[in-house]
Design goal:
15 helices; Aldehyde Dehydrogenase, Chain A, domain 1; Ald_DH_N; alpha/beta; Aldehyde Dehydrogenase, Chain A, domain 2; 2 domains; 7-stranded mixed sheet; 23 strands; 472 residues
């Protein structure tokens, strides 16, 4: 039985003061693969104190010193890439190619950050004044279970680049992956107290963090409900806040789109990461005039999105992360059927031959109204809602009729036309005829999808404060 280390404080892994034990269940077969002893309030306070003590020294480190550290972290992650792939596969259920891509991105995030700080003006002339950018202080970093290594890398690299020290609270449901990332930081020789980790129940760790006046920054990725709670609590101690929250992304197929490429891409956008992605394009908006063509294209492309254990085959989708997620998706599929949507592909229950583990059938509904539950709420599983529109103006209106605004997609053979549509969508990022990721461009959302941005210069500035110097 593997025992996962949950607590890293002041430069070393330590036994947590917390006594609660939890089992790690593999979604591949529903069996226990590891145990973790959760950190608690006392551990969190020790981590905060360590970060506070380290801040004075690390905040004065040079760009060259921070760059060298991040290069070493990149190198250490690459050394452990096979271990990360194994953990991501067993603990999360990711297909191997997805696991490899996601963990390589975690490594290159640190070298991308080196490029950012070497070109960033930490001091600049503004009219008659000098404006300098200083570290915001001790940052609390909350990362999700659906992209453990990548989310840790995005937050930690930006905080390191800015000169902050930090307390990392990864999701307890990605604890094996988080342990490996911390081992990489340790092997890279990160100064004691600069990065600390406490892995335990979110409400327990968060209580200590939000009460502390020593923590001056919170960066949270997760559900909109929890993000709003943390943002409200942050006001009491005036913590700076970055929130990357939920999404219900619209994918607009314009009337001139080539369905042979647009529909497979739309299914990939909806089913990426086993459907467990805040950026998933789960609302597919299609011209009513081409509805039957879309139907045929979906029926043709959907069977290529195979489901199975990544340990035994090269499947496009693995299981969902937990029994809770499996049950949640079944409820949404039931809701779609109950509200009168047409079940085109997939449906309730396990795929044939996959009764063990938390596998679901990739599901496509047609005849969806934008007021149905499957069109309004973030599902976080491989369920696609197809919504017909009469004209471009209506398509834009439907796309924007959502409490979320994280990502959107547009497909058209006329990229100029698609770009005009993209400018009218209330989303933080719009992909036109592609599913590419730009790691240096800002990422974040409008409306209930969050506050602030991650990646690149924008992400760095979330961890900086402006100070104006005026000389007489």
């Amino acid at each position: 039985m593997k025992h996962i280390k949950s607590t890293y404080i002041n430069g070393r892994f330590v036994e947590p003061a917390g006594t609660e034990m939890a089992e790690i269940i593999s979604p591949l077969n529903g069996k226990v693969i590891a145990q973790i002893r959760y950190a608690d309030h006392r551990d969190t306070m020790l981590a905060i104190n360590a970060a506070s003590d380290a801040l004075a020294s690390y905040s004065r480190s040079t760009i060259e010193e921070r760059s060298a550290l991040m290069q070493r972290i990149h190198d250490e992650i690459l050394k452990r890439i096979d271990d990360l792939i194994e953990a991501t596969t067993h603990e999360y259920g990711a297909p191997r190619e997805r696991a490899k891509w996601a963990n390589l991105i975690a490594a290159t995030t640190f070298t991308d950050q080196i490029k950012v700080i070497h070109n960033y003006p930490f001091s600049k002339q503004v009219n008659e004044s000098i404006v300098i950018m200083e570290p915001v202080g001790v940052a609390a970093l909350f990362t999700p279970w659906n992209a453990t290594a990548g989310a840790i890398a995005v937050k930690v690299s930006a905080a390191l680049a800015a000169g902050c020290t930090m307390v990392l609270k990864p999701s307890e449901f990605g604890s094996w992956q988080a342990e490996i990332m911390m081992e990489c930081f340790h092997a890279a020789g990160i100064p004691a107290g600069v990065v600390n980790m406490v892995n335990g129940r979110g409400e327990v760790i968060a209580a200590a963090i939000m009460e502390s006046t020593a923590v001056t920054k919170v960066s949270f990725t997760g559900s909109t409900v929890v993000g709003k709670i943390l943002a409200t609590q942050a006001l009491n101690t005036m913590k700076r806040v970055t929130l990357e929250l939920g999404g219900k992304s619209a994918n607009l197929i314009l009337e001139d789109a080539n369905l042979e490429t647009a529909i497979p891409m739309a299914l990939q956008a909806a089913f990426m990461n086993n459907g467990q992605a805040c950026i998933a394009g789960t609302r597919l908006l299609v011209p009513a005039s081409r509805l039957e063509e879309v139907r045929k294209a979906l029926l043709s492309a959907a069977p290529t999105f195979t489901v199975g254990s990544p340990l035994v085959g090269d499947y496009k989708l693995g299981p969902l992360a937990s029994k809770k997620q499996y049950d949640r998706i079944q409820e949404f599929i039931s809701s779609g059927i109950g509200q009168g949507a047409e079940l085109l592909v997939g449906g309730l229950g396990h795929p044939e031959g996959l009764d063990e583990g938390f596998y679901v059938k990739p599901t496509v509904f047609m005849g969806v109204d934008n007021n149905m539950k499957v069109a309004r709420e973030e599902i976080f599983g491989p369920v696609l809602a197809v919504i017909a529109y009469e004209n471009e103006e209506q398509a834009i209106s439907i796309a924007n009729d959502s409490e979320y605004g994280l990502m959107a997609y547009v497909s058209s053979q006329n990229t100029d036309r698609a770009a005009v549509v993209a400018t009218q969508l209330k989303a933080g990022r719009v992909l036109i005829n592609t599913l590419r990721h730009d790691p240096l461009a800002p990422f974040g959302g409008y409306k209930n999808s969050g506050i602030g941005r991650e990646n690149g210069v924008s992400g760095l500035e979330e961890y900086l404060e402006e100070k104006t110097l005026i000389r007489g």
